[in-house]
Fold:
Amino acid sequence: MIRQIDYIRGVLIIFQVIFDVIIFLGSFYIASLIFFPGTGIKIFPIGMLIFFSGSIILTFYYNSLYGFRSWLFWDEIRAVFRSVILVFLIAVLYLYTKRLNGSRFNLMWGFIIFAPLCLIVRYIFRRTLFYFGILVTNVIIFGAGRTGEIFSQVVDEHPFTLCRVIGFLDDDKSKIGTEINNVKVLGNLKKYNTIRKKYKIDEVAIAISTASRELISEILDMAEFHVRQVHYIPDMYMITTFSEQVRDVDGVPVILASRGLLDPFNKFIKNIIDYVGAVIALIIFSPFMFWLAYKIHKKDGGRALITQERIGYNEKIFNMYKFRIMRVGKYERNLNINELPGLFNVLRGEMSLVGPRALLKGDYKYLYNNSEDKKIFGIKPGLTGMWQISGRKYTDRLSRLETDLYYIRNWSIWLDFVILLRTFREIILPKKRREIKINHEKICN
Structure:
């Protein structure tokens, strides 16, 4: 069975390499048609195209783009962008050494066209594999608590990972036989070997936040020699506080605490991105915003904009601009665009493009009433944020706080980029999210 899977994987990798080369050459052909009509791809020497194609394959391989890894589409985007930028720099250096001046502009546009085309084809390819059950990774989750529940939902919402949660294992007898996100708790931890053989488990996720070192060691002993990968999902405090950077201090591994937006320089960079991003967004969306304002005003003659008092940076109150969206049709309401005027708040320095949600006064008193909670007011609130697009809008106060603190400590330009992309997807393709109901007992546990 393993040999058969390896054979299928090898064949699919060959197909993916061929697709990448075809898309790469096709991108240059499209660029040539646009900017050098009549010349086609002949503007580039054959040897140069072979060299560039080989460079793309090698960099894609180096960045694990031929491994069918169980990662999110956003990870695929980052790996493709990283590879394309590297090969573009190599190509520029190659043209400079060969003194091929006439094709540099075409070269740049060839790479610009290639990146999105490559990602579109790869996305369709992976979704097709998942649909037909090819190379699908069967995952069993140790722990049917809150952490396991959230992890299973994330896996379910991202078929690009090629992962499928088969079930949960938990020693709590009251949970055995119940369902979480339509996935059954199959038994206790001692049933693992039986379930692994029955369901052909490929990967294991340990989602027991309170697990002792002995229990984790026991699970590893059971699983690591029989599956492809073992994942450990720590509690949210560990994720929120510590980064993935590990230093070796003379043989002693040291995990560094995350800084993120606690670093003044990172705040400075984020402010620049906010101002530039808000200006660009207003230029792009201003025709639509004027049209929507006109439509709202025409409906009843009232104002298109309203203001709401919100709690912002350093717990200061500010007026947040919003569209009076309930006065228009269902289509406009479904687009979730009522907060677009908040771009003016970004330009005024009161908000950020991405950040914790700006709170109403009532929510502020109810949700954030101690010093630990109020750490989120150390940065500006955002028009969108990690919690808003996480698909868990109706979860408890603790999950919301943990998500916001994770964002603050683990901020990066890339993280903001991913959140904005997912926000755009939610606006264009809104869909009803499943509610995870987490009661007080589960929070305490």
User: Anything to note?
Assistant: Confidence is low (pLDDT under 50) at residues 432-445. The longest strand covers residues 242-249.
